[in-house]
Amino acid sequence: MKKTMSEKLTANFIRHIINNDMTNGKIPNGIVTRFPPEPNGFLHIGHAKSMCLNFGLSSEFSGHCNLRFDDTNPEKENKEYVAAIKEDVSWLGFNAEDKCFHASDYFGQLHDFAIELISNSKAYVDSQSAEEIRLSRGTLTKAGTASPFRERTVEENLFLFEQMQEGKLPEGSHVLRALIDMDSPNINMRDPTLYRIRQSVHHRTGEKWCIYPMYDFTHCISDALEGVTHSLCTLEFEDHRPLYEWVLENITINVIPKQIEFARLDLSYTLTSKRKLLELVDGNHVSGWDDPRLPTLKGMRKRGYPPEAIRDFCERIGVTKKQATIDMTVLENCVREELDRTSRRAMAVLRPVKIVLENFPEDKIEWIEVPNHPKDPSLGKRKIPLSRTLYIEHDDFMEVPPKKFFRLSVGSEVRLRYAYGISCKQVIKDKQGNIIELRCTYDPGTGGGKTSDGRKIKGIIHWVSASQGVPVIVNLLDRLFNVEEPWSSENFTDNINEQSLDVCTTAIAEPLLAQSATSDVFQFERLGYFCREKTELNSEIIFNRTATLRDTWAKMSKS
Ligand code: ATP
Ligand code: MG
Q: What total of structural domains would you count in the chain?
């Protein structure tokens, strides 16, 4: 896969571990990793980090990475999420088809392993309620207390487990627990639950199962069945590692994958928790899972973030064991760098003011050939129309200009990008005193970067022909939150940035933009990067601002 960043690789302690394992001959058959999303929501930038790590490292070391749906909770999961996740995985640039598995593929084998544990007196059916189990588990400072059902015989346990499976016992009445150690300092080892009863329909196995395995039991066995060599997960699973290993050591299975934990990605000014993202969607704070202000892959895609930029970001932030918040600017800069390199240039005026070039013939249209990219000729050229009436940005004119204002004012001269120098002769206002038109003249001798008499014109402004321009709607998107760590306040929705979506309905763009396709990204000169949104045929043209040209937040927090 093409790397957009410098070839120098950032700190990644897992790369070192794998490298060592490879050189020590510990992995004769090559490395196998997996990316295990639960199909209960859409993927976000945190998952992108995990994908880049799992798919990235496995391909770097000529191994492979499985996409495995961790689908053990029928109530929250569905087929739509599975399809959406696959689409996102492949959009990010990874293979979602060849090695695609589901934890539910292993329900039969998991059941057999549970029987093996019961037969070896390593698991028992507990008839306490969930609440009783929770209370008897103890605390960090207090040991747990044994269940009164802990001493059940193997036969009794096998019988009850079968009854659970056959749907003869109600939900919540029994669970299967591992028989480990109620005094363990690690609460996860105090007889954790392995199976619970759920009389629900699973999106893949239908009504076949009335019992569903817990994550801690499912995950390690799925890893082992797939021959995973390195099972990479986030830090919160560190305390689960002894259980991961206990399960595999106590059943008949060959492979024991190595679980390695790394710090999850927290990104400033946004959220990387599916639950909180769901709250934003359900509370109508955003337009849906693909709202371009969300850090979901669907949202970032709609916003115009290229997958290359997201992969580049994941490489740059590195992989460590220390939890730290990554600054949003890092992601935004990766996006800018990639788009600067790849996006075609175009001109659009967001808040137009009309100018009339008095010495430009009434009906004339001059088509000026310009490059689509200042550095990359392979992106081609296009022709833009110049006419007597044009629009320029309202902000590019000032009646009473401050010093060093190099744009347009009465009596001053400015250059139209790719075209001529113009000077303003007169300002026309309406009754309320609003500027409605600027009367200007142009200097035909200023083509090709020169003026007829060699004078200097400092400022260059963008413009659009009034007769040829097309109206566009531009969503000026900004960060969704105005605090750095929105997740740390309980009412996180209180910190939503009310200005995160500013719909600009006055914009006019050069005619080419009417022919652009959904998802095309352009740099609107001097304004930023903008991505065409999918709309119905013949309806309005909508662009989302992907990024500003520079980091405006840094400037704001300084002032
Ligand atoms: P959430 O907390 O958003 O619900 P999750 O861990 O429950 O996330 P899964 O679908 O189970 O969501 O995640 C799939 C994989 O992605 C897991 O291996 C998980 O560790 C990893 N992952 C999830 N969030 C992040 C994150 N913020 N940074 C890095 N990896 C993450
Ligand atoms: Mg999870």
A: 4
